[in-house]
Amino acid sequence: MTPGSLILLHPPHATAAAWGDVPELLRSYGRDVITPDIREEGGMRYVARASLVIAAAGPTVPLVLVGQGTAGPLLPAIAAAQRAAHRPVGAYVFLDADLPVHRTPATGHGHGHAPNDTAPVPADWPEAPCGYLSTTDETPRLRQARLRGWQIKTLYTQSETHLAATLNALITTL
Questions:
Q1: SS3 at position 147
Q2: In the predicted model, what is the mean pLDDT of residues 42-60?
Q3: What Gene3D superfamilies does the record tag this protein with (predicted)?
Q4: More exposed terminus of the chain, fewer Cβ within 10 Å: N or C?
């Protein structure tokens, strides 16, 4: 797959500044990088705001969604919104991120979720390759990604230069 725009999604309760110099370093590899600043606490509000900001940026498809930390479980719902807008997702990357979990929708609330609840995972997810980039020792999330058969990269340094290089290499393998 030749990736289009890389969409770097920071965790809820953070800002795009959480990515530091990584977006610019990825651009030095010739990547088209969009780093939306999403000022929402999480759940479906984060998904809705991210979808609006991504649309306004005019990304190139297929998108590569990169979720950091607690943005990870939101990637499937963000992808569903992108697909509905005819912007297919070509790959997912989870950076030290929580993983999506298929759950039965809540009942008794009409629409099945509150604005800040965990975003639902579409039944057909993942419809594109997934990768996991870990900057820590073995974790349950990393083990689960390995069990799912995802591409895995590990990095034991906090260097943004090495992080961007490893992220670029992982995206290339997807």
A1: helix
A2: 93
A3: alpha/beta hydrolase
A4: N
Q: Which two tokens stand for residue 116?
A: 């800040």
- Selection from 23, 20, 21 nearest residue 8 by Cα: 23
We find that the CATH architecture of domain 5-173 is 3-Layer(aba) Sandwich (3.40)
* Cα–Cα dist 4/138, whole Å: 31
Report how far residue 155's alpha carbon sits from residue 135's, in angstroms, rounded to the nearest whole number: 5
Domain ranges of the chain: 5-173
Phi, psi (rounded to 5 degrees) for 159: -65, 125
Q: What's the whole-number mean pLDDT along residues 120-133?
A: 91
Q: At 120, phi and psi to the nearest 5?
A: -70, 150
DSSP result, 91-111? EEEEES-PPP---PPP-SSSS
pLDDT at 137: 84
What phi, psi does 81 have (nearest 5°)?
-65, -40
CB distance 74 to 50 below 8 Å: yes
Q: How confident is the model at residue 133 (pLDDT cuts 50, 70, 90)?
A: very high
- DSSP assignment string, 62-93: SEEEEEEGGGGGGHHHHHHHHHHTT--EEEEE
Per-residue pLDDT band at 105 (split at 50, 70, 90):
low
